Amino acid sequence: MTGKETTPMLAAMKVTVPKDGKPMSPDRAPHPIFGDLRVRKAIGCYGIDRQEIVKIAFKGQATPWVGMAPPGTLESVNVNHLCPYDQAKAKAMLAEAGYGPQKPLTFELMTNTEKSRVQRHRHRHQGADGAHRGHRQHPAGGQGVAG
Question: Which CATH number does the domain housing residue 26 bear?
Answer without folding.
Answer: 3.10.105.10
